[in-house]
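Sample entry was shown:

___
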Amino acid sequence: MKDVIMFKLISTGEIGHWSQTDSSMNEICLVGIAGADQSGKSTLAQKFQEHGYFSAEISPILMEAGRPLGWNGTKDNTPFGREFLIRLGMALKQEFGDEFLVQLTIERAILKGHSLIVVPSIRTLKESGWILSHGGIMVKIRRPDIEQKTIPLYLEYLEQMLYHYEIVNDKSLEDFRDSCEIVISEIEKQEKTHL
C-alpha cells in the first residue's frame, strides 16, 4: 500500500511542493480548525469559505487512496466504508507521520492556486504544530456538551494544542455563527497588517 500511494503522490508532484523557507508562504493565509466531532468545525469552515477561503479537506485524499485498496465508495458503517477510511488515515499517519495528510492537503490546495486556505480537521498535536510552524493560525472550537462523548485521548490533544483563537459553542447556532464571524474578521485584520 505504501509504495502505491507514495508513487502516485510523488509522480504527480503533490508532495514536497514547498517548505518552511519557501518565500511563497508569505502569500498564503493558512487556518487550521481543531475541535471534537460535531463541535462546529464544518460550520466555521463554511463561514471561511464565504470569505473566499478554500476548504482543504483530508477526506478526498483518503477516498482517492482507498479506492484501489477496497474502499466501497461510501462513508457508511460497513467494514469498507467510514471505518476503512479511518483506518487508512491512521495507517498513513503511522507510516509517514501525523502531519502527512494535512501537509499533502495544503500542498494540493497551493498547487491549485489557492492562497486563502482553511483546514477544518486538525486532530493531532503534530498537525497543529505543522500549521503553526508554517505561519498558520489555529482556531479551537469547544462544545462542552459534545466533549463528554469524545475519545479521552483526543480531548487531551485538544487541551495541549496551541491556538490563536478559541470559540465556545454552547449557545444557539446563530450565536455560534456570530462568534465565527468575529474570529474571521480578526484574522482578516491580522492578515492585512502582515501584507
Notes: The two ends are 43 Å apart (CA to CA). The first helix runs from residue 2 to 11. The domain at 2-194 is CATH 3.40.50.300 (Rossmann fold). The longest strand covers residues 29-35.
